[in-house]
Amino acid sequence: MIDSWRIIEDKKGKLDIGMIEVTLPDWLYQAFHKKKMLKISPDYFRIRKAIDRRIYEIARKHCGNHGEFNIYLEKLHLKTGSTALLKMFRHNVKQLAKANDLPDYQLRYDTERDVVVFNNRNLTPEKEKKEQHVVCFAHHAC
């Protein structure tokens, strides 16, 4: 994420502690400049389980600021990189849905379709109308 960096020295050749110059890749600079980067909730850092943090990251990436994101449990299992058996992963997802404390997103497990549904908690009725109920569904091609 950093193209280059250098430590900045003062005119006498001594290091000026705490001063560095960083060059970012153009794509990253443009994303910041055009505000196309998604922010991570400060509450993300309070998530204790690594698998729950990974699930949040996946929800954030795919749902973003949209209303809803659906993903097959098996696909979510693959995307998380979890080494747990699918049966145990399903149990963990159900527990996470029951706790309902994932930042920014409500997680629901649809047992009939074996699908995990993420709903954005931060959409106001105005934003939701603007989004026109954008629903993303991750298929095996994702």
Overview of the structural elements:
- It comes from Candidatus Regiella insecticola 5.15.
- This is Replication initiator protein.
- It holds the Pfam family RPA.
- This protein is of the alpha+beta class and 142 residues long.
- Helices cover 36% and strands 25% of the residues.
- It folds into two domains: 4-33, no CATH class; 42-138, Arc Repressor Mutant, subunit A (Orthogonal Bundle), CATH 1.10.10.
- It has helices at residues 26-33, 50-63, 73-80, 86-99, 125-131, and strands spanning 4-9, 15-23, 68-72, 105-110, 115-120, 135-138.
- The two termini are 24 Å apart.
- The mean pLDDT is 83.
The number of helical runs is 5
CATH class identity of the largest domain: Mainly Alpha
**CATH-derived topology of the largest domain:** Arc Repressor Mutant, subunit A
Domain count, please report it: 2
What would the principal axes of the Cα set say about the shape? elongated
Encode the helix/strand succession as letters.
EEHHEHHEEHE
Strand content: 25-35%
Residue-averaged pLDDT: 83
The helix-and-strand class reads: alpha+beta
Give the low-pLDDT segments.
none
The rounded distance between the terminal residues' Cα atoms is 24 Å
| Helical content band | 25-40%
- The radius of gyration is 20 Å
